[in-house]
Specification:
By secondary structure, the chain is mostly beta strands. The chain has two domains: about 30-130, no CATH class; about 135-285, no CATH class. The protein has helices at about 1-25, 80-85; strands spanning about 30-35, 45-55, 55-65, 75-80, 85-95, 105-115, 115-120, 135-140, 155, 160, 165-170, 170, 180-185, 190-195, 220, 240-250, 260-265, 275, 280, 285-290. The strands form four sheets. The chain has an eight-stranded antiparallel sheet. Strands 8, 9, 12, 15 and 18 form a five-stranded antiparallel sheet that branches. A five-stranded antiparallel sheet has the order 14-13-16-17-19, with no helix packed on it. The longest helix is centred in the N-terminal third of the chain and has 23 residues, at about 1-25. The chain is elongated, with a radius of gyration of 26 Å. The N and C termini lie far apart (about 55 Å).
């Protein structure tokens, strides 16, 4: 009789222990992303989502984006306690492979949760921190690095010459860590860099195509030497386009990133040393929602 009583007793112990294990396990919930405007980062970078919980980042997982802007994954299983207590969602760009367990400095979108949803934008303080609605740009064509009156339509400088003296031509907010501006000229359909910069009143970081003389203390480039294939320099850049992009830092691509706050068509038969305006291009910015 004692042996018969042992079996149900052991069974009750097992059931009670199993129930306790279930109660101790962390339940999961889904976080859903609906984002448009992101670009394909290639094979050596990825997007990663983060929940900010009591000031600390909690990864929601990584995903890629194809050439059509489609996310490889839009639903992520996340710890329920974290998702219930999250104040903010942040989207970053991370290197592949990624040796850092925390988020990189490259925050592209963020939004605060209101109820079960967060509206994501570049303007949130945890992303780039500005919607760039005050951005403005001016530029001239000139080639100061090879002296005056030579191939003057082969260079672009982001400055304002309307008063007769060179002045700052770009109105742009200061970028947070993880981002830099880059100038571009579209030449015969091909975007060619004019250099990266973080300040609008100094020479930019690069001069791969300029000649030997110094340029003015503003971002810009003379397209005179070392032309990338299939272009030939010097080249008349009229009928092309002037572009200011916002690039991740570090930058895994030699093409313009999707964030292009300023664009200006260079007029046909453009004249050198004449100030031309750029237009805002804020529709190039990604946006979306994170829902829990």
């Amino acid at each position: 009789m004692k042996n018969l009583l042992i079996i149900p007793t052991l069974l009750l112990v097992f059931i009670f222990t199993a129930c306790n294990d279930d109660e101790d396990s962390d339940p999961m919930k889904n976080l859903n992303l609906n984002i448009s405007g992101l670009e394909d980062l290639g094979s050596d970078a990825m997007y990663e989502g983060w929940l900010i919980v009591s000031g600390s980042p909690k990864s929601t997982g990584t995903f890629s984006v194809d050439a059509n802007g489609k996310l490889s994954k839009t639903s992520f299983s996340v710890n329920a306690t974290d998702i219930d207590n999250a104040s903010t969602f942040v989207l970053t760009i991370e290197p592949v492979p990624d040796n850092n367990v925390g988020p990189s400095d490259v925050h592209i979108l963020a939004g605060d949760f209101s109820g079960s949803s967060a509206s994501l934008s570049v303007g949130h303080g945890a992303a780039l921190g500005d919607n760039f609605s005050s951005s403005a740009g001016k530029y001239i064509l000139a080639t100061p690095t090879n002296g005056p009156n030579t191939d003057e339509n082969s260079g672009i400088w982001f400055l304002d010459l309307s008063t007769g003296s060179p002045e700052v031509g770009l109105t742009l907010p200061t970028l947070p860590n993880g981002w830099k501006y880059e100038g571009w000229t579209v030449i015969e359909g091909m975007p060619v860099t004019s250099g990266k910069f973080t300040a609008v009143d100094v020479v930019d970081e690069d001069d791969p195509y300029s000649d030997v003389m110094p340029g003015p203390p503003f971002p810009g480039e003379d397209y005179l030497n070392n032309a990338p294939s299939p272009l030939n320099f010097p080249v008349d850049i009229s009928t092309g386009a002037a572009v200011i992009s916002i690039e991740p830092d570090p930058d895994n691509s030699d093409a313009p990133f999707t964030l292009k706050p300023l664009v200006g068509a260079i007029p046909n038969m453009a004249m050198d040393h004449v100030t031309y305006d750029m237009d805002q291009n804020l529709g190039s910015f990604p946006s979306g929602t994170a829902s829990k």
